[in-house]
Amino acid sequence: MGVKQENGNLGKIVPVTDQEIDDEIDLKAKKYLRGEGANLEVLKDKKLKGQLAVREELYGKSAKAAAKAEKWLMPSEGGYLEAEGIEKTWRIKQESIAREVDISSSKKQYDIVLPELGPYTLDFTSSGRYMAVAGRKGHLALMDMKNLSLIKELQVRETVRDVVFLHNELFFAAAQKKYPYIYNRDGTELHCLKEHGAVLKLQFLKNHFLLASINKFGQLHYQDVTMGQMVANYRTGLGRSDMMQVNPFNGVVALGHSGGTVTMWKPTSPTPLIKMLSHQGPISALGFHQSGHIMATAGMDKKIKIWDLRKFEPLQTLPGHAKTLDFSQKGLLASGTGSYVQILRDSSSGTHHYERYMTHSMVKGYQIRKLLFRPYEDVLGIGHSMGWSSILIPGSGEPNFDSWVANPFETSKQRREKEIHSLLDKLPPETIMLDPSRIGSVRPMRRREKPNKERDAEVEAAVASVKSVPLKNKTKGRNKASKRVGKKQEGILRAKRPYLEQQMKEEQELSQKKQRVSEAVKLPKSLQRFAKKKMS
Amino acid sequence: MKVKVISRSTDEFTRERSQDLQRVFRNFDPNLRTQEKAVEYVRAVNAAKLDKIFARPFVGAMDGHIDAVSCMTKNPNHLKGIFSGSMDGDIRLWDIASRRTICQFPGHQGAVRGLTASTDGRILVSCGTDSTVRLWTVPVATIAESDDSSNNSVKPLAVYVWKNAFWSVDHQWEGDLFATAGAQVDIWDHNRSQPVNSFVWGKDTVISVRFNPGEPNVLATSASDRSITLYDLRMSSPARKLIMRTKTNSISWNPMEPMNFTAANEDCNCYSYDARKLDEAKCVHKDHVSAVMDIDYSPTGQEFVTGSYDRTVRIFPFNGGHSREIYHTKRMQRVFCVKFSCDASYIISGSDDTNLRLWKAKASEQLGVLLPRERRKQEYLEGVKNRYKHLPEIKRIVRHRHLPKPIYKAAALRRTMTEAERRKHERRKAHSAPGSMSIEPLRKKRIIQEVE
Q1: Is A31 close to B29, i.e. CB distance below 8 A?
Q2: CB-based contact B4 A97, cutoff 8 Å
Q3: Any idea which of A12-16, A487-491, B287-291, B408-412 has the lowest mean pLDDT?
């Protein structure tokens, strides 16, 4: 039972009751349940019901076990930043954080100044250990962030617009002036991907081993890097778009266009899955939350919008420009514009209300090009016009990694094994869909519409009337039995025809309506009539 | 201001010496793993394909008999041994591991119809068409060395002659009595040369008898008047009788649920009954295309194996209507007896072509000692395959079996016949007054009546 404290200064260790522990574990177990349990009441089959009930109970037990493991067995605790008194967290500077924190963490704050080689963009591997930087004037570098050492540096003597790691640190792709190239860790050029053309942005889908690229002409390419096969190649039809992001939850690629629309693509369809009009000007930045349900977009109309991707509705609109947006593993949103970085935090997870958590101003002349949170660390990497920097953002990284998902302390043997296992588990491109949990789920039986009773009665009446009409008795060999039967059938068909046509028309309308509903076009009411015309 | 930043020290997360194991840290958060269901699906497809690649169920054949193998029995105390009797009176004890005869029990003049071993495994009881019941002592010590023992023959412990030919014999699970089936059901004691008790119900021969594993005094028999009769030794008269449309060749009790038994019938189906409620079958197991000759439950009670006149051996789940596995070979002719080994990993079938064949119960199982990691991986692959086995791509791979052409055609013919019957019944129902025609489930339809 809880012990009353006489003196408030005697430390904050209060023995927790068993009930509180149980409640906490129940709360944590919800996350591991992955959604609601199945509704077993509608089942009529008793055997199936019994089997499913046993299985649901097992799921509950495994979720509880995972919650207990999370509570007691995790080696590290997350970072935090708490302001005391009248202090506000967004006024705290990086220097004051560096003073409070241990030496190894303060080493993670640094500035690399390379003014001649152009604005820098960067990419981290999924374990957060390696970083690739690319300067616009052709400078490519690969760094090991654990030892803060440079692995390889090359100068390709061409414009480099984007760099992205493939499945591990051994390979990275650089979008150069005319085509993207794939390089080895030693700097050897392995492939020149001519089909992609002059690529503006590259993204790598880890589970599918697909390299997605958007080029100057607005063409979207998907290439399988294991076999080299070009999986898909689509014209977006919306012109040049400079923004591309991958939704990590479902593998869907989102493009931001200059008309203010965000389109989402999958490799198996030539038309976008979703087209949303988000801003009244070109889209300047896109970011996806790790859970896949929240998207942040920024436009030239000086607005940053946070979208709910289940209902496709804006949850929140914040004022301000943003040249780059990124979500961290713990859900912090970083937005950068000019030389100013702003970190927003979800105040309460239920309502999704983002407010200012931290800010950072760099030296006035630095133009921020890319912000990227380092996985599994409380570090934000900033690529800007004068090089790249890194600052500490407490509470942004996931403290406990899973060795079989991404291991920052990977040995080369582990890396080889992981490569093989991820190749065996490579997902086919058909598995990319908006709702990935639909795989293996039961499609609800579409109850066939109960036949319209009145219509049935009408059809019966018409057929009966046709049947009752006596056929003319022909003579002289013209009254064959087969001809009589044929004439009767013809009469019945003629009677039924209008009803069948009506039924077909209704079905066609239904299918058309369904097609229309799936494309969520957000237009003001006055323009909607034009949109319908275009689609029909 | 209170600040804490994630800082990991390398020593905590890496191993100290190269002889240590690598450290593994786990975080089960679903947010770290994206597209779990798709990954599981891909793994299920791969698992199904690997299963098919490694599916080699036939282990070996044991030959030695010179006539068809008519009956088999397991030694409950010794996993490696199996007894088999053939149609020319030859009884052999086999060592399954080396697939050789350990010793022979010559003596029967006609076909050996029934074999059973006592619960302690020391006495073998055999009965045959020469109206004798013979008791043999099972050699225990020399089972390990079997170099020259294929010529070993054992003299019978006792020979009891009785009035009629015997069709089957079974030993009580916990006790000293055994029952024979012939013109009537006789209960014998080891030391008495005459049966201590006799049960008769009807005038037809009783063709098989089985004691209940859970209740030592209950036994089930099947007779050639298409009936299944349950007896209780403590009562002087038989307990219940169930008459079906066709004859039951063999019965086996479920060792884990001893109130249920499954009957292998002449009409190519197996019927599972609850002994307490005999008016309706619990489950009908349909897949054979010819009479089912023998049936045996696995010690786990989860599945049973059947051998049929159509030259195949099938494995059924205890509550499922269709078989999960079929084994056939060109050389295996009519299967007369099957047994599930006591460790639930092997199946032994004895057939018309004088051979006993040893099969694996799970066709792609890796035999031998598995490391814990291997075992866990196999269990995981099994689990993920079962989770998605209803999806078309995986279902197609998992279901695929090569059937011999006559069986494939016979099964297709049966299917069209039952389908035609069903369609005709539907049409009759549709054209008659609603409620006047009701469909009788197959579980009930094959039963004529139950008699007290």
Answers
A1: yes
A2: no
A3: A12-16
Chain A contact probe: residue of B2, B3, B387 with most A CBs at under 10 A: B3
Interface A–B counts its CB contacts (< 8 A) at 143
The two three-digit tokens of residue A494, written as one number: 């003629």
Closest Cα in chain B, distance from residue A107 (Å): 11
Full strand arrangement of the beta sheet holding A139-144: A120-124, A130-135, A139-144, A149-155
**Residue A8: pLDDT over 70:** no
Query: Quick check: A102 contacting B, CB < 8 Å?
Result: yes
Give the model confidence (pLDDT) of A482-528 as tens digits: 998 899 899 999 988 988 898 899 899 888 887 776 554 567 777 77
Give the C-alpha separation, B335 to B68, whole Å: 9
- Residues from chain B that touch A83, judged by Cβ atoms under 8 A, are 1
Average pLDDT score over chain B: 91
How do residues B344-373 score in pLDDT, each as one tens digit?
999 999 999 999 999 999 999 998 899 999
| Residues of chain A contacting B42 with CB distance shorter than 8 Å | 425-428, 431
Per DSSP bridges, beta strands A313-319 and A303-308 are: antiparallel
Q: Cβ contacts of residue A38 below 8 Å, gap of 6+?
A: A52, A56
Interface of B with A in 310-329 (CB under 8 A): 319
B252-279 burial, b for 16+ CB within 10 Å, e for fewer? Answer: bbbbeebebbbbbbbbbbbbbbebeebe
pLDDT score for B141: 55
Closest residue in B to A109 (Cα) is B5
CB B1 to CB A100 under 8 A? yes
Q: How far apart (Å, rounded) are the C-alpha atoms in residues B359 and B97?
A: 12
Q: Name the residue among A225, A216, A250, A219 with its Cα closest to residue A164.
A: A225
Q: How far apart are CA A531 and CA A261, in angstroms?
A: 15
Mutate to test the interface with B, among A58, A402, A416 (most CBs of B within 10 A): A402
CA distances from B326 to A410, A420, B319, B400 (A): 46, 35, 17, 11
CA distances from A190 to A194, A222, A306, A361 (A): 13, 18, 40, 39
Question: How far is B219 from B252, CA to CA, in rounded Å?
Answer: 10
CA B8 to the chain's CA centroid: 57
Q: Which of the two residues, A438 and B409, has the higher pLDDT score?
A: B409
CB contact under 8 A, B13 and A437: no
Distance CA A432, CA B352 (A): 55
Q: Is B27 on the interface with A (CB under 8 A)?
A: yes
Please tell me the distance from the alpha carbon of residue A512 to that of residue A278, in angstroms, as a whole number: 26
- What is the 3 state secondary structure string of A328-348? CCCCCEEEEECCEEEEEEECC
Find chain B residues with C-beta within 8 A of A424's C-beta. 43, 46
Integer-rounded Cα radius of gyration of chain A: 31
> Which residue of A100, A146, A400 is in closest CB contact with B25?
A400
pLDDT, position A3: 42
Average pLDDT value for residue range A317-330: 95
Do residues A294 and A304 lie in contact, with contact meaning Cβ atoms separated by under 8 Å? no
- Nearest-CB residue to A101 (from B5, B30, B33): B5
For the whole model, what pTM was predicted?
A: 0.85
Contact A69 B3 (CB under 8 A): no
Is residue B20 within 8 angstroms of chain A, CB to CB? no
In chain A, positions 258-277, which contact chain B (CB-CB < 8 Å)?
Answer: none
- Report the pLDDT value the prediction gives residue A37, as an integer from 0 to 100: 82
| A chain contacts of residue B46, beta-carbon cutoff 8 Å | 424
In angstroms, rounded to a whole number, what is the distance separating the alpha carbons of residues B369 and B196?
A: 47
Residue written as token pair 């009595």: B177
Q: What are phi and psi of A350, to 5 degrees?
A: -70, -45
